[in-house]
């Protein structure tokens, strides 16, 4: 099995796509007016408008309701990314090193989903990621 993507259902798809283009530096591929993908080397972030929910089952997803998942993006230079984004996003927490060795900061997208940018900082974390 291959992990392919994470999909976010958005009330305002244009705002969400623009936000994630800013964060990732990647251009979205619009596959339909109600669906876009931002492809990164590790995985794809899919963004669907609220209208797409009915394609599966009405009421099966709700924009802005996530409080349990975090979108995590590994970066080369966490300090540079923090400087680039700190005044453009709503921070959840400033830079810190987590107990598992990643240096990270977290913010929210326009509809409330938590987003963390991180890079391995400790030797153990660097070793863990170099083996992937």
List the topology elements.
Blueprint: E1 5-10, H1 13-24, E2 29-32, E3 35-39, E4 44-49, E5 70-74, H2 78-85, E6 90-97, E7 102-108, E8 114-120, H3 123-130
Parallel strand pairs: 1-4, 5-8
Antiparallel strand pairs: 2-3, 3-4, 6-7, 7-8
Task: Describe this structure as you would to a colleague.
The protein has helices at residues 13-24, 78-85, 123-130; strands at 5-10, 29-32, 35-39, 44-49, 70-74, 90-97, 102-108, 114-120. The mean pLDDT is 94. The chain folds into two domains: 1-65, Signal recognition particle alu RNA binding heterodimer, srp9/1, CATH 3.30.720; 66-132, 2,3-Dihydroxybiphenyl 1,2-Dioxygenase, domain 1. The longest helix has 12 residues, at 13-24. With 132 residues, the chain is an alpha/beta fold. Helices cover 21% and strands 36% of the residues. It has a four-stranded mixed sheet, covered by helices on one side. Strands 5-8-7-6 form a four-stranded mixed sheet.
Put simply, the count of helices is 3
Per DSSP E runs of 2 or more residues, the count of β-strands stands at 8
CATH level 1 name of the largest domain: Alpha Beta
According to CATH, the homologous superfamily of the largest domain is: 2,3-Dihydroxybiphenyl 1,2-Dioxygenase, domain 1
- Overall geometry: globular
Work out the helicity level. 10-25%
Termini gap: 16 Å
* Radius of gyration over all CA atoms, rounded: 16 Å
């Amino acid at each position: 099995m291959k992990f392919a993507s994470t999909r976010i259902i958005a009330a305002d798809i244009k705002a969400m796509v623009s936000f994630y283009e800013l964060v990732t530096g990647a251009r979205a591929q619009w596959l339909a007016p109600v669906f876009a993908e931002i492809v990164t080397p590790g995985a794809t972030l899919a963004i669907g408008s609220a209208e797409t929910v009915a394609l599966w089952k009405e009421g099966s997803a709700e924009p802005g309701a996530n409080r349990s998942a975090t979108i995590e993006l590994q970066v080369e230079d966490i300090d540079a990314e923090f400087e680039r984004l700190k005044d453009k996003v709503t921070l959840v927490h400033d830079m810190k090193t987590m107990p598992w060795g990643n240096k990270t900061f977290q913010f929210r997208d326009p509809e409330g989903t938590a987003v963390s940018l991180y890079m391995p900082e400790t030797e153990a974390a660097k070793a863990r990621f170099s083996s992937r």
